[in-house]
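Need tokens for this chain, all 519 residues.
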Amino acid sequence: MNTGNNNRIVGELGQAKLRRVSWPQRIRRLDRANSGLSLLIDENPDAADERAEAVNERVLTVDELARKLNVSTKTISRWRRYGLVSRRFVFAGRRRVGFLQSSVEEFVRRNAERVRRGMCFSQISDQERERILRWARRLASAGACPAEVYKRLARRTGRSVETIRYTLKRYDRERPDSAIFPEHHGPVSEETKRRIYQCYQRGEALEVLAKRFCRRKSEILRMVAQIRAQRIFELPLEYISNAQFRADLSPEQERAICGPPPDEGQPPQRVRAPSGLPPYLASLYEVPLLSPAQERHLFRKMNYLKYKASRLLSQLDPQRPRAALMSQIERLWDQAVATKNEIIRANLRLVVSIAKRYVGPSGTLFDLVSDGNMSLIQAVEKFDFARGTKFSTYATWAIVKNFNRSIPNEHLRRRRFRNGPWELLASAADERSDSYEDELVNAERERQVERLLDCLDPREQEIIARRFGLLDGQQPMKLKDIGEMLGVTKERIRQLETRAMEKLRRAAQEQGAELMSAT
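Here are the structure tokens for all 519 residues:
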């Protein structure tokens, strides 16, 4: 600061006397003026030649003034910006900042409340810190939010809210494993960011979120923008490239691509739903079919919107995402999804017509339609309209290929678990006179077989179980196959089977059970 700035400050003070301003405004202006004069004296080298002993009144150093007012040296430095006049004196041969006693008294008189608050920032003892931490942990366990904890502890200890906040934040930062507020101090976890984003998307006010998570509104907005950018980067923007897609398209060319599909001057073609279909499947036939020109237009529009969105995505910075750019990408994506759904709705009846040909005695039409709809969606994503092929031809091939792969696997699974009780109940009608009694009889027979098998050694048990298909999900095996599995000859397996059957007959006679021969 130079003399010109000083004259400007004094001139403003003189003009302020002629204006009708409130006393608080005058005091603030005087504080700024005193601060400017103080800086002027500090930066003027000619005012630093005076020795502190030669002054007629007492001169205090920064440390002495801090001890006298029971504040920190940082607080003294901050007060200098608010009008505490200082000068540079020579103390024992060293140039240091000093304060005249009269200047200090004048500052304390005019800033009594500020000085009182500053004195609350004195050094906290270890015993007081432990007490504050213990009280804070107790309040946090009771469900109090950090802001409420700060206020309560400030009233109880006589300290300022900022002192309590700094003490707890420092503790949580240095000891994250035992933090009092792990979600509110230090870095925010990704899960918390996603929860903030979801609350913000539901319409919760920014002030409410800032208070709940004890973060500034600017931090809440930054976290919302980061999660929003992450979700945009996860969008499936893969597209089928085309020679018409360029960055230098004119507005007329872009409107031709992104506009409504062409109207061929004919009423939309509607097909009558086959009889016997459920209401949901019959309603699919109410959507008109697409003409070849409309079909090409919609596919070109969908892929161009994805192409344009992917170009904008390359300009998006995940750390500092721009809201306008993200809104533009989301708008293009929504338009692409709407166009894709229009194509899918017009071809859902194709899935029904194909699924009807694959319905078997053990399957349902709804299961096949659901499976075929997934194939249809994938076909829409991969279809290249520029090759001149009709989409219905490509989609039919994709759906039939999926059915030919999934239906045999389903039949194989059903055959594999055919011996299960639930499969038998589902595949055959119950013609028993008393099903409950028969189930009890079958359960008793299974227990008898288990007791009979206990009289055999482990190798004999395995041979009998595999020979007669007693293992779950397995059919009866031949002697040759069992021998190859156990590493012995077919004849040896026959001998072991004969010996095991003799043991089972003797055990059945002793237990009074009926032993049925295998067929």
